[in-house]
Request: fold
Amino acid sequence: MSYSLVLSITLAGATLGIWIWIRRLRDRIPGGPIPWPLLGSTLELTANFHRLYDWITDYAMQMPTFEVSYMGFRLFFTVDPANVEYILKVNFHNYVKGSAAHEIQYDLLGDGIFNSDGDMWRLQRKSASLEFSPKMLRVYSTATFRKYAVKLNSVLEQQAINGAVVNMQDMLMRMAFDAICELSFGTEIGCLDLSLPDVPFASAFDRSNAVCASRYFDPLWKLKKRFNIGAEAKVKEDVRVLDYFTYHLIQKRKKSIQDNEVRSKSDLLSRMLSMAKENPDLYDDRKLRDAVLNFVLAGRDGTAVTLSWLLSLLSENPGVEDKIVQELQDIPGLSSSTIEGDDVCCFKKFSELLTYDVLNNNMHYLHAAITETLRLYPAVPLDGKTAVNNDILPDGTIIKKGNVINYVPYAMGRMQRLWGNDALEFKPERWLNEDGIFQPQSPFKFTAFQAGPRICLGKESAYLQMKIAAALLLRFFTFEMVKFNRAKYRLALTLVMPSLPMIVHQRGRKC
Reply:
């Protein structure tokens, strides 16, 4: 082949590539990173991987819906409440988790409620809904949450006496994990024992969580998994730890039921095993394992992550903390004089005053502070849906079959067009009316709990646990951020921090 022919073919190929690129630039919606030939926006996304949600926010501030070309795929991101309502409610059946997301998260979440569509999702939701009935919340969940919040205070009391630096995110994860495992499995894990033991199940869960999140932006993850390379090699070991622990509990609970030992148990696993007797094909051991691990992800990470960000924000906004403490002192029955005494542990005595009705009817400012935390730091910062068929969003964005459209709670909470010029400020008052009563916003604007048919079943349960824990923590302790440390997130399925080192001080009277 002559040199001139090679040169001609090369020039023709380059011209065709440039022509295709120009066509794609013309056809793409305005805003978003520039898609370069072959690479798309891959290099820019990779460079900003450590600050992914802020990178998305930067573009969302310019354009509410924009496109990212990544490794040949078209990804859409939106912070438009009209689009969110359309995706999550109006045209719900056209937007699903999709096979790609299901495969990415399957090792950890299997076919559980957060990783399934259609009949499997409906079945999981029906069985999980029993966990969040008003009766369950009033009687069983409230008592469990109080129990482990008191345990956390007892551990922190020793840390405060010793003047130690405490990783508060780890402490909150331990508390939430103990509580959610009792609610899920009906068993005590012991994460909050005074020795603070290493819990292999929890460690394996965290690593698997991080690996699943990284797969979304790693086009080689399947190859790494096939050849057992890097983090993909470790995740196999971690999944074995999760499976051994979960299947062991399932078999143990089955035997207890056969021996008539747990008829009165109210935990999720016991109830699902009862349902499995009637529908053995619907609830084999694998599906039980998936259901429980999904419940653990939501119940532990959602609560602990939000409380971690709350403590971080309060350390920077002491005026807000003072108002929360004042609210606790102003509630009848929760004054300092009520809980001081030598005959009963004040942690436990105070916790018993935190009844379901008090938590729901009297703590409007604390509720607003937690909600404001979720606005700025939602436990699930980004959620994607795959289009089943071609569609057009309310803002005119054309979506093709198979495209992924992501709504971004993290970015939505920072939009001035949605929340005003003070959108970046931590301001619980924005959620209160003139009488100081909490006022909810549209779930398509405040999307921390999703919306529509898939709205979070555990929303009320999460608020209940967070208010119990926050009330106990802030009544008895103050939290000082370690100097030069600034809270930041690391990439995972939830908005976790690398750590949250704080110095814990006792507030007021020693128990």
Observations:
- The two ends are 89 Å apart (CA to CA).
- Strands lie at 65-70, 73-78, 95-96, 165-167, 383-387, 391-392, 398-399, 404-407, 477-481, 501-506.
- The chain has one domain: 53-506.
- The mean pLDDT is 86.
